[in-house]
Amino acid sequence: MDLQALTRALVAFRDERDWAQFHTLRNLIVSLNLEASELLELTQWKGDPEIDTMLRDDDRMEALRDECADILLYLLLIAEKAGINLIEAAERKLEKNALKYPADKCFGSSAKYNELSE
Known about the structure:
The protein is built from six helices and no strands.
């Protein structure tokens, strides 16, 4: 299933429940951030080794998958509401990032684009 088909299925799910009335752009953006916080909560107070261990635990992996899915679904609803083609937007953003972060200047560096050496 591609993003368009997934969006159509999601919109059908929403419409079957008459939830579009609650899906203002603001509410969707707030909900996306709440879901992102739930994803963050899965790693709260854990170091990288504990998080790596989490990836081998079925219940924890299911929780991780569920939170990632919630984030994706809200993002699709935001894009649908705002008329954004996410594939095109992501392609354009990659192009912008390639200009901001040329490989020869940022390779192996975590510096922000405005901190890269000339």
